[in-house]
Amino acid sequence: MVNCFVPNCNHYSETKVCNFFRFPANKLLKLKWTQNIRRSDRCPSVNSQVCSCHFIDGLKENNPTIFSWNKEKKFLFVSPEKKNKRKPKPTSKTVVANEEELPD
Ligand SMILES: [Zn+2]
Ligand SMILES: [Zn+2]
Known about the structure:
single chain, mainly alpha, two-stranded antiparallel ribbon, 39% helix
């Protein structure tokens, strides 16, 4: 069982709700991860892993950037775009739903 290396994250590999990634072998990349994770009290060991919740699209190549301490920031940054997208979305969704209901 591996606990996510990210502080405030209590995800375990055993729960299988997300994927777990080992720190990259590349030193610079590893340093970047460590800096992003802001864990000054501990250095990642060979057994340390980070869960996919901290990666955009859950992809390791995106590097861990999603953390509890920047979630709000991210939300604020994303929200203007979301607001614009929100308006057309419900209409297109209802159209799709109606189409799905019609065939029978
Ligand atoms: Zn995690
Ligand atoms: Zn997770």
